Amino acid sequence: MARLIGAGALMALACMPLQAADFALTRWSEDHRDLADPVRQATPLDAIKHLALGASPDRYLSLGGQLRLKAVDFDAPLFGLGSNEADRYGYQRVNLHSDWHLGPNWRVFAEVGDAQVHGKRTPPTPADSNRSDLQLAFVDFSAATAGGKLLLRLGRQELAFDSAQRFVALREGPNVRRAYDGVRLGWSAGALDISAFLTEPVEIRDDEAFDDRDSNAIRFSGLRIRHGAGEAVQVDGYWYRYERDEAVFGGVRAEERRNVFGLQSAGRRGAFDWDVEAVYQSGSFGAADVRAWAFGSMLGLRFGAWSWQPRAMLQLDAASGDRQPGDGRLETFNPLFSRGSYFSQSGLTDFSNLLNAGLFLSARPLQPLTLGIGGGRMARQSRDDAAYAQPMLPIPGSRNGERVIGNYLRFNASYRYNRHLTLASELQHYVPASGLRAAGARTADYAELVVKFLF
């Protein structure tokens, strides 16, 4: 009851008109120095966004958080294969953070979170539930040097490099976001941005409160260089090193070591926008050599002269699969820490052994309302490898003679009442191809409704 009363009070505040700066997906990247002026504060909640810690404008505290409620109705998880049955459940996520700016060079950011799943038949996964724990906790040191700005970040942090987040993502779609323990060093000057990191992903344990720890079995490091930071066109080149001590491919368990080389371009010119990324992976899996690749693209065309601001988007994606198991070469692409909602919120598809082509249309019939509809077809890149659901889970019966996985239709709607309160929904209808149906797969319908309140 207390939670419902608190949620009601927050929703009431959300219904007040607001004009201050928006909140970000990465809350640690926000800048609320504008709210130091009481005139800019539209609600009582704005007063906690900038609390002075002395006379210096560089010393202040910013408080914030979020409440997210999500309801899911999924009639055929994993296409109903195996023991998967129709499921209905709810997610609840609460996060509270404090952002301490302790002068021009030092900053401390900490966030605690509590994520719960209610009514789910299958056992919760690390992406479903994590009772009260430390989500983020890092220290920043920044300084002007060599004609640019140097940033050193140490502690539990998020990695987010681009808006598409195909292979290194926050995992915002599921209930528990992804974090890493480690160090990140960045340098930026004008349009150039360089970032290097050495981390271990946080292992979500959920046995008791505050028991998460860095993983001893997975290590993730890399170097990323961007030209065009803050400009209309950006080009990124990167190298990642991914190490997993116990990986499983084709029923074989062994050490996995991958070097990941990628090139990405994103931007907008006139009515056209794009995000294109190509990746190559080399390394080893046990005694086998790794040789894998992937390509992702989103190509958009906006019709700005039309009143509803429509946009058409063509999505083309491909990822390699293993062509001949047991030949001493592993060609299944590993999507690393992929975005849970890149293809859809249902999790029926992961970025491995995949060919995807889709066309989507979106429009804004009202200023706060965005609608989207589209669909496409998915197939396996290699007939000798399985189709994969998230998280890189081989779909039973998918190693069949038919390359096509199935056809899908997706509908999205989002209503942004103001900068605090957003409602969103997604519907997906996925019809598996005859090869999967012969293995027992059935048509999958997925629906979700999300209410998010940020402050």
UniProtKB/TrEMBL annotation:
Keywords: Signal. It comes from the Bacteria. Pfam families: Alginate_exp (PF13372). Residues 60-447 form the Alginate export domain. Coiled coil: none annotated. Residues 1-20 form the signal peptide. This is Alginate export domain-containing protein. It comes from Solimonas fluminis. The lineage of its organism: Bacteria, Pseudomonadati, Pseudomonadota, Gammaproteobacteria, Nevskiales.
